[in-house]
Design goal:
Radius of gyration: 11 Å
Distance between the termini: 18 Å
Helix content: 25-40%
Shape: globular
Number of helices: 3
Oligomer: single chain
Mean pLDDT: 97
Largest sheet: 4 strands, antiparallel
Strand content: 25-35%
């Protein structure tokens, strides 16, 4: 997994891993890896999450607003 940059300094996202049809996200304070896939969350949301992960900004807020319970 790649360490999340957390450019705004207050994200609960610790690390992520991008794959063709899903993104895995590790949040601070938990050992669990959350997988958000095309099947569970939809292609558009997953692709936006990938973009935000690579930017290092806004991923936690996006997940909490749009994908919170859409993990596998």
């Amino acid at each position: 997994m790649e360490r999340y940059l957390n450019l705004d300094g207050d994200s609960n996202v610790e690390a992520y891993s991008i794959h063709a049809t899903y993104i895995d996200v590790k949040f601070r304070g938990t050992a669990k890896i959350y997988r958000y896939s095309y099947e569970s969350a939809g292609e558009d949301l997953v692709e936006e999450a990938k973009t935000l992960a690579e930017r290092g900004y806004g991923l936690n807020s996006f997940i909490m607003s749009y994908m919170r319970y859409l993990y596998e």
